[in-house]
Amino acid sequence: MGKTLLVCLVILLASASTILGRELLAQPTCPPPGFSSAKPFDLTSYISAPWYVQKQVTTTYTPENFLYCVRANYIPIAGPGDLSKGVYVNNYSNKDRVNGLAATTSKAQGGFQLYATVPDDAVPSQLQVGPYLGDNGVTTAVSSASAKMSGEAANYWVVATDSSSADPKFEGYEWAIITTGPPTIPSGNGCRTGSADGGIADVAQRGFWWFTRKQVATAETLEALRAKSLELGLDLGVLQDVQQAGCDYSGAP
Ligand SMILES: *[C@@H]1O[C@H](CO)[C@@H](O)[C@H](O)[C@H]1NC(C)=O
């Protein structure tokens, strides 16, 4: 083979693979192959303390001016340690500023009570969150309780945690990544949750949160959350910062 021909071939191959590479980057496969939720997963440990949100995508209930002091606290409905009836979901956030007007999903505090259940006991990291129908509506086991949820129920997947409950030295979770199920929409830098139309349904269905046990996360923890999110194929471009410094949670549910 002539030297010129060889050079031409090499250039051709190189440009072909670059184009292919760009094509793959522009159109990631969504959800990423193998995308699932955390396994094994210890729900009792997960809900044992409040979670502080460090970053999230804005949602119907948490628009940009509510990205202050966002926290989630999960309380077993049947009593401490008993997950058979699901858990109350007590979301909390402040409007416009740190310690501003409080919004909450705790009924006891005038909110619209939400709760979460596990539809399949074999996969405790895949929960559903929906409106709580009252004690009479939720008197059976977790799986049938979830069947009673209205169409408004949303997926709540814990897709990654810092440690594994299978580890003999497991002492609980320090951080977690939550999504509203598999991210199905290619968005240039990865995959995102929601619906492709970009409208109201999109805002209602999207969800991606970085949770930490510490109110103000360390740089190290944030870096671990970033690295893991990238590894999972999630588009980090949708995330916005939540202010946590100075938040007073003393009255929060
Ligand atoms: C409450 O927060 C959870 C995530 O922690 C989310 O799935 C849910 O949509 C939120 N709901 C409201 C009403 O804030």
Task: Itemize the secondary structure elements and their pairings.
Elements: H1 3-26, H2 43-46, E1 51-56, E2 68-76, E3 87-94, E4 102-104, E5 114-117, E6 126-131, H3 142-147, E7 154-161, E8 175-179, E9 185-186, E10 191-192, H4 200-205, E11 208-212, H5 219-231, E12 240-241
Antiparallel strand pairs: 1-2, 1-11, 1-12, 2-3, 3-4, 3-5, 5-6, 6-7, 7-8, 8-11, 9-10
The site of 2-acetamido-2-deoxy-beta-D-glucopyranose (NAG) has 13 residues, from strand 3 and strand 7.
Keywords: Signal
Protein name: Lipocalin/cytosolic fatty-acid binding domain-containing protein
Kindly describe this structure.
With 253 residues, the chain is of the alpha+beta class. It is built from 5 helices and 12 strands. It has an 8-stranded antiparallel barrel with strand order 1-2-3-5-6-7-8-11. It is globular and about 80 Å long. The chain binds 2-acetamido-2-deoxy-beta-D-glucopyranose (NAG). 2-acetamido-2-deoxy-beta-D-glucopyranose binds next to strand 3 and strand 7.
